[in-house]
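anyone seen this seq b4? input:
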Amino acid sequence: MDFGGHRAGLVSMRQLYLAATGQNRGKTTASLGLFDGFLRAGLRTAFMKPVGQRTVIDHGQPADEDAVLMHEVFPLEADYGAMSPVHIPRGFTKKYIAGEVVEDLGARIVAARDTFRADHDILLIEGTGHAGVGAVIGLSNAVVAAMLGAPAIIVSEGGVGRPIDEIILNASHFAAHDVPVAGAIVNKVDLDAQPGIEKVLERGLANSGIRLLGVLPVRPILSNPTLGMILEGVHGETIHPGPDLDRVIDGVAIGAMEPRHMLERVGPGTLVIVPGDREDVILTLTTAHLARRFRLAGSSEAARIAQIAAEATNERTANVEGHEGAAVGLVLTGGYRPRDAVLAAIRQADLFTTIVPEDTYVVASEIHDLLVKTHPGDIEKIELIKRLVAEHLDIDGILAVATEAPAA
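predicted toks r here
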């Protein structure tokens, strides 16, 4: 099938609006994979994030971070003024409600879309959050999709009842704005634990007239960052880099309980966020690493080092038997710097550790954002996304639901 409009004699650029049922459902994952699929189909493909809520400066221009991601990954030549036309900085919503924003933001979005017409076969438009996000400034996803005349694809995440409920709810909001829903994609599906789940989702959505366009299997690397990304994301001081900054973390734990209780909740791939003055927790984890290291070497050096550190700091550590090698790294919060004996134990244990001035709650929120975002430097993650989309989604079928952009 030839989808190239310029090769088939068509002059109109087609478009798709990629929406989601909420934050962190996998919309950006779908964008990366679909964009790659469109390129592999031989299409001149463009990308636009009409309304951005997370603005960064790239190449001297403000842009939504998802537009920057697409620009860097593929790479795209489009100006950020077209790829990311409207930004919502802090305080913007209050100004809009107060009547201080007089520009026609919708017209700016449509004008940005029209810059892609002449040189592209298809435009992938990525929304923000669920169908109603942005309504407070008159630019909900449903309103923007209607304004652009683009059919919506809705992305949700694993489960049965929850994704179906969410997709139907969001589809109703699009329908209220006369936006056709071309179908749905369900992300983070455990295909091994739920054999036949795709057929169940397909039937459940079909009952409401919604087509399932495919499911994407759950993969830990798609949700979790590397230690290097953690270090870059929290902007901390490196106490010790550990053996491998490319190590992907398995999860996050807050070290705010007694060491022996914390060990029960920490695995070898867990990143522990802990106040820098909780030296009992820090020493317990360094002891666990030393125990594994020296057990493998047949040495009792770990116990000696741990004892020296504990005596120097007058801290009591938990018994680490059965928890050797617990945790993959530490983020020490509050700007509290452990005493020299503890720092020495961290380095001796070769345990990734960074220290930050913010409190534990703020840091945990920052790291949560890292857990669900994809960055241009995530080479392995991005390549996996491309493969999963190519294997599990019907690119030709998705292209078939794209419609021509209305005449300017």
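Residues 279-296 form the longest helix (18 residues). The first strand starts at residue 14 and ends at 20. kinda curious what u guys think
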